[in-house]
Design goal:
heterodimer, A: 116 residues, mainly beta, seven-stranded mixed β-sheet, four-stranded antiparallel β-sheet, globular, B: 117 residues, six-stranded mixed β-sheet, 12 strands, 0% helix
Amino acid sequence: GAGVSQSPSNKVTEKGKDVELRCDPISGHTALYWYRQSLGQGLEFLIYFQGNSAPDKSGLPSDRFSAERTGGSVSTLTIQRTQQEDSAVYLCASSFLPSSDFAEAFFGQGTRLTVV
Amino acid sequence: AQSVTQLDSHVSVSEGTPVLLRCNYSSSYSPSLFWYVQHPNKGLQLLLKYTSAATLVKGINGFEAEFKKSETSFHLTKPSAHMSDAAEYFCVVSASYTGGTASKLTFGTGTRLQVTL
C-alpha cells in the first residue's frame, strides 16, 4: 500500500479482555517496529522485527504482551488480560534497511486503545 | 546502548522569531539521528535525518539541524517560526547492532513547540 496501515484505528475494550492490533507495513520494508505513546508521554519502544524474527523485544512491558510477524509483512500485537494502564496509542512503523545505510521509519496513524 | 535527551519539554516562541529545540544523544556505535514532528491528531512525519554525510542537515519546512560529535548534540533550528510549526518534536537516535544491519530507533521524550502571535 501507499503507507503503513494500522487497524483498528480505535479500540475500546473491557479490563481483562484480550485485544489484537494489526499493522500492515509498506510493501518491501524489512524492518517493523511497535511503539506505545501514552497521554503526554514520549514514544516507548516495544518490539522490533527484522523480517519475521524479533532481535529486540526488550520493550514489551509484561508477558501479557506478544507480537508476531508472518511472511515478512503483516504484524499483530496481542495484549492479553488488558489492564487500564495499557490504554495508549499503539504505533507501528516500517523501514527498508539496505545493507549500508539507515532509512527513515514510516509511521502508521496508530491504534488508540482504551481499557475501561 | 543508546539514548537521547531532549532538554526542553516545552518551548514557546513568537511567530517570526528563531526556533531552537535541543537534543543530546548517547550511542555506542556511529549513530544516525532523526527529527520527527507530530502535529495534533496526526501521524509522525520525518523532518530530517543525519547519516554521516554532511553535518548540517536541511529538512522540510525550513528546519535544519547540525550534528556536533564533540558535543553529542543534534539541535533543531529554524530561522523564523510560523504558526503552523506548533507541534510535538521528537529527536531519535538509531544505531546498528553489532554484526548486522538491524537498528532500533530510540525516541526522546519530545518537545512541545508553541508559537504565539
